[in-house]
Amino acid sequence: MVADSYGILxxxxxxxxxxxxxxxxxxIRHIEIRTAESLVPKPSAYELQLAIEWLKSHKPPGIxxxxxxxFKARGRTIRPHIYKLINSIWNKEK
Length: 94
Description:
- This protein has 94 residues and is mainly alpha-helical.
- The protein is 53% helix and 0% strand.
- The protein folds into two domains: 1-34, no CATH class; 45-92, no CATH class.
């Protein structure tokens, strides 16, 4: 049984190398995965709307001390600003 991350990655590398007849990968620690597009799609405004609607009321605020009721009560007003912030974070990856 393989338990460490490099062992698991090595096992999968061997499996897929045999499956796809690839024999060029020797050191799995230097493998980089590059894709033409993001693996996870950009968050949509609809997803933000659903997330705000699904927030449960009367729960303690998170680490930034912003009450959930604020998001729910002022959702339509602040939603575009939150969405702009989320997109900025998503694009800068910071």
